[in-house]
Specification:
With 376 residues, the protein is mostly helical. The protein has 15 helices and 4 strands. The protein has helices at residues 15-23, 31-65, 69-73, 75-109, 118-121, 130-137, 140-166, 168-176, 181-200, 202-219, 224-235, 238-259, 296-307, 316-325, 337-354; strands at 265-269, 273-278, 288-294, 312-314. The chain has a 4-stranded mixed β-sheet with strand order 3-2-1-4, sandwiched between helices. The protein is elongated and about 135 Å long.
Length: 376
């Protein structure tokens, strides 16, 4: 549901929404942190490696201003001199650049981490829409950037004025120092100024980082309807899930009814429950429940049993106990062994009686003697 539907985005983003945003390359970023990290690291790098870099530059200048006429008109020798100059400057310059590279990488990944997204790299024609551009110009983000820019200018200007005022004695000292002492003294003052001014921008970073995280979370906030829709998409619509469960039950019932002809006996609570048991001494260490059901399903089990000449034995307490304590394809509990054994013995004797052997059997009372903990 869109904003036009009247719902406010009051709910925090769900984990799925956050993951989708990360896949699109949408993570909180602080440009202030990245730029200040480069500036501060650049100042520190110059303080650490500036001596070597300045010496290399000095050697290059001496070499370039000491060229003879023969050096200038001898291209081979001129190329050798240029190559030597590049070699001398390469190492100290590489140290500074590598230091800046790691600083830039850490500063950029400091908020939001490292994410690679092809979707973020794809061109978006919506960004070329002039109307959208005008909206962005007067949006909240633009006002925040304007305020940050004013704050940075004011902060840098204030710190610079303070440093100049506090260093007036050093400036006067430069006028009476001799070369090259005044030259190196001026460089020290300049580097300290650059470092302290860059460090002052950490105040802006301390404000910008929490704001960017808060703004990112605000942009990803969801309406209650969006959360409901997402839940439906991830978990499935209730009516679809209900339909699937119904089909699964029907398939399970069909498989169960197909197993009823393999039963040795069906025990019933004549009106409500039916339980079909199989016992094959070669396969089973105890009788196994292959079908069970209540009400209409119990009636269907009895119909299938009658159709396949499977004996149906009414034993209400035993039928209820097996129905509630044993799942399909599971063996009956130990406490029901005696009662079920009496039923199976009764069925075996009944089959013999039908063949004209022996007297008509009666079901032992032990078939309904159910332990108290198994009664239902």
């Amino acid at each position: 549901m869109s904003d036009s539907d009247g719902q406010e985005r009051t709910e925090d983003a769900t984990p799925r929404r956050l993951e989708q945003a990360r896949e699109k390359g949408q993570v909180p970023r602080s440009r202030e942190l990245a730029s200040v990290a480069v500036l501060v690291s650049g100042a520190v790098g110059l303080m650490w490696f500036g001596d070597g870099l300045s010496k290399a530059l000095g050697q290059i200048m001496i070499a370039m201003f000491s060229l003879t006429r023969e050096d200038i008109f001898d291209l081979d020798r001129l190329f050798v001199i240029i190559f030597d100059a590049i070699v001398h400057i390469l190492l100290p310059l590489a140290l500074v650049l590598i230091f800046l590279f790691f600083a830039a990488f850490i500063g950029a990944a400091g908020v939001g981490g490292v994410r690679f997204s092809t979707q973020a790299a794809m061109p978006k024609f919506s960004k070329m829409n002039p109307i959208s551009g005008i909206k962005r110009m007067f949006g909240m983000q633009s006002w925040v950037e304007l305020i940050k820019s004013i704050l940075k200018v004011g902060l840098v200007g204030s710190v610079a004025c303070y440093l100049i005022y506090s260093s007036l004695e050093d400036f006067f000292q430069l006028s009476i120092e001799v070369f090259p002492a005044n030259y190196f003294h001026a460089l020290d003052i300049l580097l300290n100024f650059v470092l302290l001014i860059c460090c002052s921008l950490l105040i802006v970073v301390a404000i910008d980082v929490p704001f960017q995280i808060w703004n990112f979370n605000q942009q990803l906030k969801m309406t209650k309807q969006e959360i409901k829709d997402e839940y439906k998409d991830s978990e499935g619509k209730p009516e679809v899930k209900g339909r699937i469960r119904m089909l699964q039950r029907e398939m399970a019932q069909r498989r169960m009814m197909a197993d009823v002809p393999q039963a040795d006996v069906v025990i019933t609570n004549p009106e409500h429950f039916s339980v079909a048991l199989r016992y094959d001494p070669k396969l089973d260490s105890a009788p196994v429940v292959i079908a069970k059901g209540g009400d209409h399903l119990a009636l269907k089990i009895r119909e299938v049993a009658n159709k396949h000449n499977i004996d149906i034995v009414p034993a209400a307490p035993l039928a209820r106990a097996i129905y509630y304590t044993t799942e399909l394809e599971q063996q009956i509990p130990d406490g029901l062994f005696v009662a079920v054994a009496q039923v199976l013995a009764y069925v075996f004797q009944l089959k013999e009686y039908r063949k004209g052997k022996g007297k008509k059997p009666t079901l032992s009372k032990a078939a309904t003697d159910i332990p108290e903990e198994l009664r239902h």
